[in-house]
């Protein structure tokens, strides 16, 4: 969500942090309105690295999120010449 690697990432396809937060907040309501039994919302931003959108910008808040994950990567020798992206 904050890495720029995916079609839904902030900065890709015109996506913004506020747009991503709205989606996370409204999707469960939309599914429930269409007969969904139960929806669990999990978000898993990347840990901080140079070039990532801040987690504060993308995190929709505890009222909208049931499970919070965090993706962190070990880049081996620490030579981050690829800008945090592989």
What are the salient characteristics of this protein?
single chain, mainly alpha, two-stranded parallel ribbon
Structural class: mainly alpha
Average pLDDT over all residues:
79
- Low-confidence region ranges: none
Q: How many beta-strand elements?
A: 2
Structural features, described:
The model has no long low-confidence stretch (mean pLDDT 79). The protein is mainly alpha-helical. It is built from two helices and two strands. The protein has a domain at 17-68. Strands 1-2 form a two-stranded parallel sheet.
Summary?
The chain contains two helices and two strands, in the order αβαβ. It has helices at 17-33, 55-58, and strands at residues 42-43, 67-68.
How is the secondary structure organized here?
Blueprint: H1 17-33, E1 42-43, H2 55-58, E2 67-68
Parallel strand pairs: 1-2
């Amino acid at each position: 969500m904050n890495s720029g690697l995916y079609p839904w990432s902030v900065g890709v396809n015109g996506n913004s942090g506020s747009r991503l937060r709205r989606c996370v907040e409204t999707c469960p309501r939309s599914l429930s309105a269409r007969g969904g039994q139960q929806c669990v919302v999990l978000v898993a931003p990347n840990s901080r690295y140079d070039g990532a959108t801040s987690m504060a910008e993308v995190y929709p808040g505890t009222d909208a999120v049931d499970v919070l994950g965090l993706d962190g990567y070990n880049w081996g020798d620490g030579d981050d010449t690829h800008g945090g992206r592989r």
